[in-house]
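Example with several molecule types.
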Amino acid sequence: MTEIELWIAALLSLTVLSAAVLVLLVKNHIAAVAAASVVSLGLALLFVLMRAPDVAMTEAAIGAGLSSLILALALRRLGLWQIDGVKSRQNLIKAINGVERDA
Amino acid sequence: MTPTIDLELILYITALGLISIGLAGVVLSQHLFRMVLALVIAEAGANLMLVLAGYRWDAVAPILTSLGEHPQMVDPVPQAMVLTAIVIGVGIQALAVSILIRIRQRFGTLDRHEVAAHMDAEIAQIAGTSRDMSQESPLGERPLPPLPGTPAASREGRS
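Resulting structure tokens for the full complex:
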């Protein structure tokens, strides 16, 4: 156990915990599914640090891959597949145009 | 400074944080799909906790390379359990999602209170009684007489 592994574990823990909070707080459902996938992926890296490579393989393949696939397909079926509206994109375009006009 | 205690502390904090965030999401969320996501997070925290039970800092991964010498290994039994638990978790998730699809087909909404109200109405309709939504007018006989202090008019008005 070296110092660098400690720092990697601390960083991964912070990522996983903040992604888990984000799952409950973010409004868009696609973003929530993506945050759950991030939780699973960070957990897989933590399993590698804990000397469990088989669990890490399974978690990365099933937890991050298959599970988010199931959730995304369920989002389509449930009618919640909405990319954050035309409105925010228009706001973004307006902001970019404003920046260009200012420059 | 001993780094081992610190690493285990970090991992325990992560596991407990994931479990508590997931349970809080299951209890507090209004939308049923968000509830399924919170369940997934709680399950991931439980998996991390189980692997952490067999972890030792001075060991190698449990892979037998040479038959001669046996270095200290991490306990492989919790890892096998967690391997099973991950797959079962995906099965539970698929089941929950299919139940959500049925609920949406039947009631047209996924909000928790609306679905509960629809289900109450349906059960009451099948049972042939009025909906029992109030503490003041429960189904069947009132087991105890009403308290003398409370005015009867307000109870009548509310029910």
